[in-house]
Amino acid sequence: MRTEDVYLSGIGSVLPDRVSTESAVTRGWYDEADREASGILSVTVAGSTPAPDMAVEAANVAIRRSGRAANDFGVLFHSHAHHQGPDAWSPAHYILNNTLDRPIPAIEVKQGCLGGLAALELAATRLLANPSHPSALVTAADNFSIPLVDRWRTSSAFVLADSAAAVALSRGGGFARLLAIGSVSDARMEALDRGGDPLFPPGVTVGEPLDFTKRREYMREQWAQGVTPPIGYFGDKIVAVTESVLKEADVTFDEIARVAHPGFGWESLETMFLDPLGIDADRGIWDYIRKVGHAGVTEVFLGLEHLWTSGQVGPGDRVLLVSSGAGASMGAAVVEILTAPQPATEN
After folding, report:
1. Which helix (H) or strand (E) holds 146?
2. Domains delineated in the chain
3. pLDDT digit string (tens) for 87-118?
4. Which helix (H) or strand (E) holds 9?
5. Closest CA to 120 of 69, 160, 180, 161
């Protein structure tokens, strides 16, 4: 979707304290061989800080940076991949109550790790379709620090990280212009994240730990028994959505200065994103994101904010945001940086 007069007017994030992977190995949480293979140096861990509280903090930073009044905002989208608080409760309205405090829609977006970009796409669509308010707020947050999640071993592809991020999206100006955004999916791949787990009762309700490795092993066992798993080449989908969004933005890949991508371990990142897109670690955000971990719904926002506030991109630079989620879903966006950060916003 090509967007006209849609801007990122504010951005904010919360990164809790980092735990080094070297320390995790010493404490017996993480295997040394996995640490070396992943290339991940540290992971952000929030402890007992609720994800919605981190989202509130990030949102208030984004709102302040946007320069927009609360009355300018007409909708809030909150994305998360993990449990946020009490069952049958709305974290989106909690965040709204503690930020804008307005009687506007507050909507949850569950799209796995693509959730942040999916919420941004919905917010842009809302701004284009409904002129009654000039701004929309997107928040995203997760805290995986619960007994049913072993962040260090739940997947061989990544180590789960806790974080929050927020983006104020506006018509009429901002620090960056959203040129285009879009997503695709390959629903045949949904089984890869389901494995042999039953649909009912949900595993979390019976104390079943989150274990992506077990689910992948189930699919390998099925394959060995002659049941071909629904596997396509993931990289093809990443390339397809990227090329589509670039075309809509009227930007060539050579004109992309930097790429904000997921915080997977090196092998998975290279196989799923870097190699298919034909980029190296320096053009991406590897040196930054390897100190954060796989932050899921927030990581492309974290990457964009880091690139901008650290001065690695500036006015006229185009940045590609690319991510994926369960489903399988893949998404991308192209933004053009318009202004340098003010000193007060630098991290």
Report:
1. none
2. 7-174 (3.40.47.10), 179-187+231-339 (3.40.47.10), 188-224 (no CATH)
3. 999 999 999 999 999 999 999 999 999 999 99
4. strand 7-14
5. 180
